[in-house]
Amino acid sequence: MTPENPVARALLPAARGLALLAGYLLLGLALLVTAEILLRRFVNVSLQGGDEFGGYVLAILAAFGFSYALLERAHTRVEILIERVGSGPQAILNLVSAWCIALMACFMAWRSYAALSESIEFQALSGTPLMTPLWQPQLLWFAGLLFFAITATAVALHASWLIGQGRSRLNRFYGVKTLDEIIEEETVSSLEMKVTGQ
Question: How many domains does the chain have?
Fold first, then answer.
């Protein structure tokens, strides 16, 4: 994301932190699955709940990753049309896209809060031998979706402001990444990896 974008400057560090947390959760899930396979193969013992935790981790992983993907302009887009119109129509399409994402993000946060509230009210447990209190994974899931709703709404409001101020900046901040931007990001990433010795 372009560093002069105020929304990215404010929210990208938190989004990156949540995405890293989700990555560590995924790593933990991979280790759990590996342990499950090895224990079943060599000791004939099963760790109960690996599949249950896997479902929770994937839901939380997605919720935490949405904001980072939005700020990095990594969500999938159909570029065949938008590349063939001028910057004015591109700005309008990018604005509509930003508002569609914001409305969907707010709807998902609202519905996840409803699910969380029901689980707390009825003290719902998972239908598995672990009987996990459902509010625990749902709380993390809701937190990720709430942050996504906040991020998406901030992006949509900023895009709305930019439509009257500078459409080229709206396209640069929230439009499809150009080939030059992708090449520049990969070049910078490669240089950083060489400098850190990775």
Answer: 1
Q: Whole-angstrom Cα distance, residue 54 to residue 68?
A: 21
- Phi and psi torsions of 145, nearest 5°: -70, -35
Contact 60, 25 (CB under 8 A): yes
Q: What is the mean pLDDT of each run of 10 residues along the chain (198 residues)?
A: 79 94 90 89 81 87 94 81 78 92 98 96 87 93 97 96 86 80 74 68
Residue 133 bridge partners (DSSP): 125
CA angle 162, 84, 4 (to 5 degrees): 30
14 part of a folded domain: yes
Could you give the maximum distance between any two Cα atoms of the chain, in Å?
Answer: 66
pTM attached to this predicted model: 0.85
Q: Is residue 152 part of a domain?
A: yes
Nearest-angstrom CA–CA distance, 112 and 120: 12
